[in-house]
Amino acid sequence: xxxxxxxxxxxxxxxxxxxxxxxxxxxxxxxxxxxxxxxxxxxxxxxxxxxxxxxxxxxxxxxxxxxxxxxxxxxxxxxxxxxxxxxxxxxxxxxxxxxxxxxxxxxxxxxxxxxxxxxxxxxxxxxxxxxxxxxxxxxxxxxxxxxxxxxxxxxxxxxxxxxxxxxxxxxxxxxxxxxxxxxxxxxxxxxxxxxxxxxxxxxxxxxxxxxxxxxxxxxxxxxxxxxxxxxxxxxxxxxxxxxxxxxxxxxxxxxxxxxxxxxxxxxxxxxxxxxxxxxxx
Amino acid sequence: xxxxxxxxxxxxxxxxxxxxxxxxxxxxxxxxxxxxxxxxxxxxxxxxxxxxxxxxxxxxxxxxxxxxxxxxxxxxxxxxxxxxxxxxxxxxxxxxxxxxxxxxxxxxxxxxxxxxxxxxxxxxxxxxxxxxxxxxxxxxxxxxxxxxxxxxxxxxxxxxxxxxxxxxxxxxxxxxxxxxxxxxxxxxxxxxxxxxxxxxxxxxxxxxxxxxxxxxxxxxxxx
Lengths: 281, 223
Prior knowledge:
The complex is a heterodimer. Chain A is of the alpha/beta class. Chain A has twelve helices and ten strands. Chain A folds into two domains: 2-117 and 229-276, D-Maltodextrin-Binding Protein, domain 2, CATH 3.40.190; 118-226, D-Maltodextrin-Binding Protein, domain 2 (3-Layer(aba) Sandwich), CATH 3.40.190.10. Helix content of chain A is 43%, strand content 23%. By secondary structure, chain B is mainly α. Chain B is globular and about 65 Å long. The interface between A and B is medium-sized, with 22 and 20 residues.
């Protein structure tokens, strides 16, 4: 009963959002009274914060409408958990398997591709396990385990951590022992620890480029196993600000924002950190 | 959804937390009690500036201590060759710097709170410097033990510095406070609550011992 009510409310809000977006194509034109407003909680991953992307996107979104955004940057695992408990209105996450479970359990109203970046395997420039010649990330991990070379893992249930564990599984290895360093922290601190301990680690490219004072080098990159797709999910839960969440979902996948994402980081890092994906699916 | 942490892990964390914070408190005591006594007793140029510095140190944000210690201990830092970053010894260094100003400051106040004429009386009775200081410490033992308890409490409960200097590495430098932050970060509240309760129990145990010493001393002094 209540579920159906909400479905209707979501639909109405979506239609209102569409109408609002359609009426002011110049983003900060006169906003209509039917535009969604209020406070919205965006649960996202540390990588979008650590790279500075959120600092660019969130104020622009707030400026374009009446929604004020409270950002919670945590691991993808916790972000998804916040969504499942109705503590967040919209998610911007990169943990495809967990996202699919989330949608299958009926916690999400919509899930759209936003952008992707890629993972890179980093290590000390001396490359003691000779992973740069291993030919791909999976053989590289096997070489690290064979050499018992230090590897820093976030071990924090984040999207990056999920990716890392999946790659170890593909390599047929259950990493353990003193060479496998579990930091239990976000990407930034883990990169610093890996650099200081001359350990290998898996990172998204953006956070690696945005983190300063690292000695580590990219040793393995490219290829399908290292892709890192981000999706925006509108949470379906009683009490959430569906209007703003829908507006955010539509805004971030819209052409102007996608262009901003494509250009983000080019000036500061000499390369784009994220590649827009909206409309790809 | 979340299982309670295994007993082996809890004991490992309690052991490491106690080892780090108790040794840091012991070292901070060896530094802070003599330093605070000197500041409380002696009259020298710059004493007031030193006292102000110590009192400021009592309010030193622990993350600032962590930042500075980490920068010094990083491979690129001045003491990088000692390989202390992300080690238990590095964490002890950070906690010594956190606890020492507290112990120094409270000791200084305790010594100054003694009757002003006491040092002169003791000297008139023929006490040498060592006897004088020992007597003053005995007189001030209640606030001195309070100083040690405050130092331990500050060291064992802080999280910023041990994270930065220790790295929260599982099985190596993870302590109760950093484990709590990690589990909350994962949305895993049950183990975090267990660690919180255990941390409280550890603080209670340590303070129970110190308090019993303190109060027994008080009873002895009255009899």
